[in-house]
Design goal:
The complex is a heterodimer of chains A (about 240) and B (about 425). With about 240 residues, chain A is of the alpha/beta class. Chain A contains nine helices and ten strands. Chain A has a six-stranded mixed β-sheet with strand order 6-7-8-3-9-10, with helices on both faces. Chain A has a four-stranded antiparallel β-sheet with strand order 2-1-4-5, with helices on one face. In chain A, a hairpin with a 2-residue loop joins strand 1 and strand 2. The mean pLDDT of chain A is about 90. Chain B has about 425 residues and is of the alpha/beta class. Helices cover about 70% and strands about 5% of the residues of chain B. Chain B is elongated, with a radius of gyration of 32 Å. The C terminus of chain B is likely disordered. Classes of the chains: A alpha/beta (about 240), B alpha/beta (about 425). At the A-B interface, helix 1, helix 2, strand 6 and helix 3 of A face helix 1 and helix 9 of B.
């Protein structure tokens, strides 16, 4: 059943063999929020994003996207989300334009909406001059921009972005952050992202959740967390919280 | 057709056909290879044939009788002849000096000996200056000329002693062969029909093997490349059911593989045509005379086997890390295709040892080879059983593939060489 709460996660667990990746994780994201998951390597960030993107299933607990259960209503969830994996590739033998058209065809209701999405994708990617070239001729940064453009152009209700600016230079990373911000403000998009870049999280996110060993150890708006822990920046909060945990 | 299937299918076909490894390595090269091989073989055999004709035969006729003239004349008809006028002990050196391919010495008294009712020897020395086709063809030409002369001399000798037509004495039986095939009496010598059938029963499994190999390699690539290029995660989160993604991969691979197969078959057909022209024979006549009904039945059997091969390849590719390991994994399945095809190409399954027979029957791809045999012999009930067995296997493997695609196994399962297994999930982020 559809809900105005964008993400609802309760007591989520997931193990890979003997390794427990998530140990009863719970958090919520309201519609229109940008929520950042931060944590050290192995904290369970990507596992959480993959569960919400319907790629893998939790062992127990509940995960809902706009009210739809990610296990029982996976197809409905896929229709309203768009997922950007950390290492997202694109079909190397298609052109950038063909790739965007291919992706748009799953969401567009007619030819004109498909064209609109593709135009939007070209604009987000900033690849106007190279959009007809094969993806295999693109640099890593160009591929990342294409993948991000693909994720946002379809205007999902929830964008799940795993390290969205990974592999981008300072200028393009800034461009990507401003695009995400604009999409949320203009189109009411909800964003769940993970990042190692504390500055990015601090400037972009309305709220952040600190993950450590598969549990949420701290959560709140960046400014509030800094005040609470008397820290100059999120990095210091992160270090203090994970050291205690 | 679901709305999402068309773009998925288009993407599969475009991405596969534009991959140089597939386009060049699996479609263009194999299609070109056979005609080039055929043309090269034909050119070399034509040259060898010309060389064999141009090579002279040196003849030392010490008898100069009517009978010896028959031999010289027969040799002259088959190619160039050099008549030697030297002492017998110098003949060999002279023939070598004149670069002849052989020396034929007809001894003195040759004709008289024959007329007295005795066999008479002649000496034939063949010089091996080089190996290859030209020497073989020259030897054949010499043997055929001598055999022809021998027949003429036989007829002549019979005519000297009897009033009966020499042909009656030499070939008293007038043979009138016919062949009964699938209940029909055919006015064809059994040897010719056996040759044609053998050609059909060996060529069809070879072509089928090629088709299946292509399909498996391409299907495995279509899955593994998604992992290698990191596109799989994105694909699996699109609003398209996993079943449609699987279906697009199956149909797309089958389409591209069929293009490759058509290219290879056209190339193979041209190659065989070249070889038939070169050998002046038609060993594959049976293939072109197959009825359209039987051809349709063959296509159904091939489709059933192809579905199974594609699905098995896709299942295996799920466990591979990249294209190379997927193709290596799929290569292990070839044994299930090759062994039954080769065994049944030359032996009847009923004549095999019991254990081998039942092992073979259990292997699904055996039933493709059996189906082609049953089509040839018109045993359509048995053919239906074979095809049904293939379809049951195909359906079961498709169900398994569907389950794997619907689970997280498609992302997490891995087999590494040495069969050490681990899950990608261990790399938690």
């Amino acid at each position: 059943m559809a809900s105005e709460q964008a993400v609802f996660v309760a007591k989520l667990t997931k193990s890979y063999g003997k390794i427990r990746a998530l140990r009863g994780l719970s958090f919520r994201i309201e519609k229109g929020e940008i929520y950042g998951l931060i944590g050290p390597n192995g904290a369970g960030k990507t596992t959480t994003l993959r569960i919400l993107a319907t790629l893998i299933q939790p062992d127990s607990g509940e995960a809902r996207v706009f009210g739809y259960d990610v296990v029982k209503n996976a197809n409905r969830v896929r229709a309203i989300i768009s997922y950007l994996p950390e290492e997202a590739g694109a079909y190397r033998n298609l052109s950038g334009l063909e790739y965007l058209k291919f992706m748009a065809s799953f969401y567009a209701t007619d030819e004109s909406s498909l064209q609109e999405m593709v135009e939007e994708g070209i604009s987000i990617s900033g690849l106007e001059g190279r959009i007809r070239d094969k993806v295999k001729t693109y640099s890593q940064g160009m591929k990342r921009r294409l993948a991000l453009a693909r994720t946002l152009m379809v205007q999902p209700k929830l964008a799940i972005l795993d390290e969205p600016t990974s592999g981008l230079d300072v200028i393009h990373a800034h461009h990507v952050r401003s695009v995400i911000k604009r999409y949320v403000e203009d189109r009411g998009l909800t964003v769940l992202l993970s990042s190692h870049n504390m500055l990015e999280v601090e400037t972009l996110c309305d709220r952040v959740g600190l993950l450590h060993k598969g549990n949420l150890v701290e959560e709140g708006p960046p400014e509030e967390l800094k005040r609470k822990h008397r820290a100059a920046n999120l990095e210091e909060v992160f270090v203090e919280v994970t050291a205690i945990a | 057709m679901p709305k999402v299937l068309a773009p998925l299918l288009k993407k599969e076909i475009l991405d596969l056909l534009r991959d140089p490894k597939i386009l060049i390595g699996m479609i263009v090269l194999p299609a070109v290879l056979y005609p080039v091989m055929g043309a090269a073989m034909r050119a070399s055999m034509t040259a060898a044939g010309r060389a064999a004709l141009q090579l002279p035969v040196a003849v030392l006729d010490l008898d100069r009788s009517f009978e010896s003239e028959i031999i010289v004349s027969s040799l002259s008809e088959s190619g160039e002849v050099i008549t030697l006028e030297v002492e017998p002990d110098k003949a060999l050196d002279k023939a070598l000096e004149m670069e002849a391919g052989a020396l034929v010495v007809i001894p003195e008294g040759f004709g008289e000996c024959l007329r007295a009712g005795k066999r008479s020897p002649i000496e034939i020395h063949v010089f091996f200056e080089s190996g290859g086709f030209s020497t073989q063809m020259f030897a054949g030409r010499l043997e055929s000329a001598i055999e022809s002369a021998s027949k003429i001399i036989s007829a002549y000798l019979v005519s000297l002693t009897s009033n009966v037509d020499p042909e009656v004495i030499l070939n008293p039986l007038e043979l009138d062969y016919s062949s009964v095939f699938r209940g029909e009496v055919l006015d064809v010598p059994p040897q010719a029909l056996a040759g044609a059938l053998m050609g059909q029963m060996t060529t069809t499994p070879i072509v089928a093997m090629l088709v299946l190999m292509f399909a498996m390699q391409i299907a495995a690539t279509s899955v593994a490349v998604e992992k290698e290029e990191r596109t799989l995660e994105t694909l699996l989160t699109l609003p398209a059911s996993r079943r449609n993604i699987l279906l697009a991969k199956l149909v797309g691979s089958a389409f591209v593989a069929s293009l490759g197969s058509v290219g290879v078959m056209a190339g193979l057909w041209y190659y065989l045509k070249m070889m038939n022209v070169a050998f002046e024979s038609q060993p594959f006549e049976g293939l072109v005379t197959i009825s359209s009904k039987d051809l349709a039945l063959l296509a159904v059997a091939l489709m059933a086997a192809n579905m199974l091969a594609l699905t098995l390849a896709i299942i295996l590719a799920v466990f591979a890390e990249n294209v190379r390991s997927a193709q290596a994994l799929v290569g292990n399945l070839y044994i299930l295709i090759f062994i039954p095809a080769f065994m049944l190409m030359f032996a009847d399954i009923e004549t095999l040892p019991v254990a081998a027979k039942y092992v073979l029957i259990a292997v699904p791809f055996t039933h493709l080879a059996l189906a082609t045999q049953h089509i040839t012999w018109g045993e359509y009930t048995m053919y239906a059983v074979n095809v049904l067995y293939l379809f049951v296997w195909s359906a079961a493997s498709m169900l398994l593939a569907d389950r794997i695609f619907s689970s997280e196994k498609i992302l997490t399962a891995r087999i590494r060489w040495g069969w050490k297994r681990r899950t990608r999930g261990n790399e938690i982020k």
